[in-house]
Amino acid sequence: MNTPPPQKPGYWIPVCTALLFVCSPLLQAQRNAPYYNANAATLRQQLAEKTTASIQATFREPDQFNKEAREAYRSARDRIGLDVSEEISESALVDDVLWPFVQKTHAAIVAANPEGAATKVILTINPTPNAYSVGDGTLFVYCGLLAGLENEDQLAFVLCHEIAHYLLEHATNGLVREIATFHDKAFKAKVKAASKQEFNRNEQLANIYKNVLFKSRYHRRDLERQADSLAYRMFLKTNYAPGQAQRLCALFETIDEPLRDSSLNVETHFGCARHPFQAGWLEKAKGSVWADAQALNAAAEKQMQDSLRTHPDWRNRMQWLEEMAQQLLVGTSTKTVSGDPYAPIRYLSVLESVDAWFSVERYDKALFYAVQYQQVYPDCSYFKEMEALALNGLYTHLQDHSLSDVLSQSAPDNPGKYNRFLDFLNNLRLKDLLALQVCSLDAALASTTEKTEHGLMAAYFVALAQDDRSAMLAAKKEYLSKYRKGRFADVFQQAKK
Fold it and tell me: 373 near 353, Cβ under 8 Å?
């Protein structure tokens, strides 16, 4: 068994010691709600401060830059540090299962590839399927990625890829290249000349910057191939299944479309005996006029799509990895993945991802995924409770005439079933949203005998919308007796003011 490498002194806080966790992720994956610990904010802040300091130390001003370029470089570096610090302090997940799991996978990679020992992993609740390397050795992994993966082997290749970006210094060199480009004398001269043109000035300026964009994107695609090449060699040194690298590329074609093969019949899901579904809720929402424009621009969109991608097309990457495999796998193990030991990790990641959409007030996304995951995890009351909470979020904003802030319109780049879902939500009135809240809450309460934190809050909000003071006080009393320091406790503190 691989052993973790020594930690960099003064940087990384050992998870098990700092948080008093027992590091056995799969044995601990028993909770049926997103992780919450009121004291976790302190650890997130420590991680944010140390990462910011690391970025400042790593991104050093090139000696060849003039004063203007050096100032621009410092400004960009500070912006990176601020963005990273905010992401960590607001969304880093320092739980007792998922973070140790990701760290364990990272440790196994580093044990086989000691050159990656200076890297470290931060997991965030971000629900999008992504991971990236900052440049100082910090690797970000999003819960949305964990929710979309099939096994630990795929996670391992993602981490190898991001470690490769760090070892190849892609982020640090990229910043230097960006600053150098826009502060180059010849480039500035072109911009100045175009700015003085009497005719077509804006078009000429746009073409100058578009040319830089295309060159940058193609260069970054080359960097992705470089990272894949090094990552695959690192991956082969581990005990993970080599074929999962290619499988990951195939998976990424649809990883941002969870449950795309499952049906979402709003007419059968929403409504109940007390509040039956209404046919008018499925009318095409007014203002959805993008279909004609989409048809007219489809060819141009298809032509531009690949050129503007940061990452190479996943099919091309898979072919590239298969070619590498033919060269490098001769005489090596053909280990395969059996069973589904990753299932508890995927489940908890799904919980965190749905909750993250709710936390950032993307109530349409939270509702959509909560409904879909009920099909996958029918015994988990959380998804039914989240359905009621997300509907309440929409209700509150419609009441405040700010529904457009939290509810999207249908768009051509959305899956068809999601556009139909958005049209459905945009047709609902206040009374409809309240009625559906009641139906969802009834379903949630019927699915469990336990009064959960999310269930009690859903009950409180429904009672508030119905102006049922007795039910409000009962839900509040029970919540505070069980979850005085819970994630929603501040709701009642604000209500006192």
Answer: no
Would you state the structure tokens that stand for residue 362, as one six-digit string? 């993307």
| Domain ranges for the chain | 15-241, 266-311+361-496
Question: Got the DSSP string for 65-77?
Answer: --HHHHHHHHHHH
For residues 160 and 107, the answer to whether their CB atoms sit within 8 Å is no
**Tokens found for residue 320:** 């590239």
Angstrom CA distances, 305 to 295, 300, 419, stand at 15, 8, 22
Burial of 5 by CB count in 10 Å (0-12 exposed, 13-18 middle, 19+ buried)? middle
Summarised one tens digit per residue, pLDDT across range 315-325 is 677 666 777 77
* Sign of the dihedral through C-alpha 318, 322, 323, 324: positive
pLDDT at site 468: 95
Among candidate residues 305, 324, 314, 320, the one with its CA nearest the CA of residue 217: 305
For the record, the structure tokens of 427 come out as 């047709």
- Please report, for residues 108, 117, 152, 401, the alpha-carbon distance to residue 229 in angstroms, rounded to integers and kept in the order given: 19, 19, 20, 52
CA-closest candidate to residue 357, choices 369, 365, 345: 365
Tokens read off for 388 = 């009621």
Q: Taking 50 as the threshold, does the pLDDT of residue 132 lie above it?
A: yes
Instruction: Please report the pLDDT score of residue 148 as a whole number.
Output: 93
Share of the chain above pLDDT 90, in %: 49
